[in-house]
Amino acid sequence: MADVPNPFAAPTQFSNFVLIVEGKKLHVNKEYLSMHSPVFAGMFSGEFAVNEEEVEIKDIVYEEFVEFLNVIHPSLSPITASNVKYVLRYAAQFQMEGVMDKAEEFLKSARNVNTARKLLFAYMYHLDSLKQHCLDSFRSVEDIFALQNHLEYPILTEPIKLLLFDKLMALGERSGRH
Predict the structure, then answer these.
(1) Which Pfam families did the record assign (predicted)?
(2) Domains within the chain, CATH numbers bracketed
(3) Residues 21, 26, 28, 33: what is their CA dihedral angle, to the nearest 10 degrees?
């Protein structure tokens, strides 16, 4: 993350608000953030609007949030295997459906993110299309058993394991008929 560009470190002609994360200032555009997030829209306008020129956001990691801002700004940073975890977390926190969709599409095509991790993200963030994509990727009983070798397998939730069991049974029935 050290090489992440930070166009938010200093004011620009387009910035009109300051977010403070871990004591560091990020110069942003209120309108742009509001277009992407009902949370930011509520923060900047409406009956609960912040009347200050800057606001501190807690429980956010500065470097992660800078990369997240780069992802939502056009052509700055792509979603990658190394940032998708916190891109999803912040997109969910700030209700950015467009970013959630972008991350889901990335995960569907990502070959460097294992299926166990994808299923975990699908469950955590209610990414139904990703969940179905993962389940459809299992072509044999062996594919599902191989999933147990992934480091993330022990942290998969019971609902995910039940889905895997259902898929295992369906594959077993299908192979038993042939």
Answers:
(1) BTB
(2) 1-96 (3.30.710.10), 114-178 (no CATH)
(3) -20
